[in-house]
Predict the 3D structure of the following.
Amino acid sequence: MKKAIVTTTIIVALIVSVGGSLWLKTRLNAQAVAEVAQEQKQEQPKSKYDVGPVDAGEILELVNTERARIGVAPLTSDENIHMSAQLKSDDMLAKGYKQHNIPGTDNWYSLEMANLMSKAGCHTVSENFYWADFESTSRDAFNWWMNSEPHRKAIQNPDYTKIGLGVSRSSDNSKTYAVQHFCISR
């Protein structure tokens, strides 16, 4: 009987010891993996899209990368459409509005913006806009559009062939407006 109690005690001690060792090894491995991941995260430089401020060229790259991902031809930047989008983002910043229609009108575009898009040969146009009340990045603007179905559909629309981008920031970078004008050419 005494031998059975000693044997049982040894078996229980071994099980507890092995179980404890496995638990400790698992915890140490998990901690080591977390430390390596943190080190790698710190070592990897941020993408240019993740460092502010918002940049029209970076947004165009992100848009065309998304279009390539889904097999849609890239958009080409058009200077006239760019000027139209820049006029709109400047107007939004100056007047502080966050809507498509220019305040006091029923129009998305001023006469000057409409003339620029007509000059670019657009017969159908649309607009995406983004605003932030903080210093934001190109990826912030792009992700905001991609997380909104109508904005994402405009970015992915294969009928659009041209784009113009305008970005406006307050002098202290606390407010940002970004505008995309899309164009279907005649």
The beta strands are 76-77, 122-132, 162-169, 176-185.
